[in-house]
Amino acid sequence: MENTLFPIFLKTESARFLIVGGGKVGLEKTETLLRQNPLVAIKIIAKEICGDLRQLLHKSPHVEWEERSYRHNDLDAIDFIIIATENALLNREIKEKANLEGILVNAADQPDLCDFYLGSIVNKGHLKIAISTNGKSPVLARRLREHFEEAIPDTINQSIENLNTFREQHKGDIQTKVSSLNEATALLLQRNNPKKEAKKYKRLAFEIAAVFLAVFFGYGLSSIVSVQDLAGYAREIPPAFYGMVLVGFFAQLVDGAVGLGYGVTCATSMMLFGIKLPAISGSIHTAEMFSSGISGFSHYKFGNVNKKLLLWLAIPGVIGAVLGALLLIYLGNKYETITYAVLATYTMIIGIRLVSIAFRKKIEKKKIKNTGILGFSGGLLDAFGGGGWGPIVTSTLLAKGRKSSYVIGTVSLAEFFVTLAASITFFASLGVSNWYIVLGLIAGGSLAAPLAAKLAGKLPHKTAVLLVAFLVIVFSIRMLFKVF
């Protein structure tokens, strides 16, 4: 057996430590002990105390210290000794004398003189994890500590407190405790093998979207191109298709890395390309329907959907989306210049809204009023402007202090029905003459998805949202100048 160490957690309230050595190693060992218990009893003996250690001692007046040579009577009334000198002979002498007195020894960088090791320690409230490599690689132990400190959330302490409260409330016989535990963990059994269940619902959403896609392009090809002309037409793909690939790529890159902004990024970019207004919103919603469907059903399976809130958002949102789509079709055909100005102003407002989201501070939970109006307004403006459901609805609910997982999950599933309603309205009114726009957005988004996934979380969320807001505002202002 290569590692025979037995890890224990020592109560330091009554333990007494002696540190011999006042250099950088002595400083490190002192800091390690004080991090675990700021009032731990420490005595330091050293010929010379370094400046950093001296500053630490001024902040911890309870720590005893003397600037002199070590004497054997320093071991009196000591439980543990830490040797931090560069004198190998002295270190061995202290080790032998301490063991005769029944005192355990730790010697820095000398495993053969150690009775115990000071491992790397992860502190997260009540949670404490000690890491040891059996004295072989302190650097690896430190790197593991840094990894766990970053990976384990600070909220783990709240979970420990909740479990302790649950434990204290169940002091009955073993049968009572088992029954309570079974009830508390029933939800875990319902979520068994979450990856498999998530894959199942992603496949279902994909199949629904594939059927719609087949009808969409099947009808479009049959009404626009005959079978005889299909091969020739394929060689004459409209140049705008490649522009839409770039727009889809950029928008998906932004949305995947930041978590919002797909619709409004597409809308502002496509306006600059001169795409007809109804085609902008119709294409965006058709392309976005696939991702929102997969995301929404996945959230539903993982229990992140509030069904009551979903109804209050989805039903008015669908009505608003249909009206918004019809309004855009009418205004876009009759008052194109004015509508461009209205949409550019709207997207600029959304950009300003994103800035407020970036600087939003944590607020207390408040009662949500007029949820139906919020869903209707979000659907109407989203269909009319080609985007904005997330910045409008999600940000409003989060501003009321609602839990982010339920807000994002519920809004994502509601968005699927809103985008579906808008897509069907545009499809029924305009046909599929703009099929190349939809296909370009889907192709570009598919290419960007893997890269966007890698970028997710790399850029600070506040910085990322501000960048999106900046681009949206700049594009909108440029469009206003172009109109006027």
UniProtKB/TrEMBL annotation:
Keywords: Cell membrane, Membrane, NAD, Oxidoreductase, Porphyrin biosynthesis, Transmembrane, Transmembrane helix. Pathway: Porphyrin-containing compound metabolism; siroheme biosynthesis; sirohydrochlorin from precorrin-2: step 1/1. Belongs to the 4-toluene sulfonate uptake permease (TSUP) (TC 2.A.102) family. It is found in: Cell membrane; Membrane. GO terms for molecular function: ferrochelatase activity; precorrin-2 dehydrogenase activity. Gene3D superfamilies: NAD(P)-binding Rossmann-like Domain, Siroheme synthase, domain 2. GO terms for cellular component: plasma membrane. It is a multi-pass membrane protein. InterPro entries: Met8-like, NAD(P)-bd_dom_sf, Sirohaem_synthase_central, Sirohaem_synthase_N, TM_pro_TauE-like. It comes from Flavobacterium humi. This is Probable membrane transporter protein.
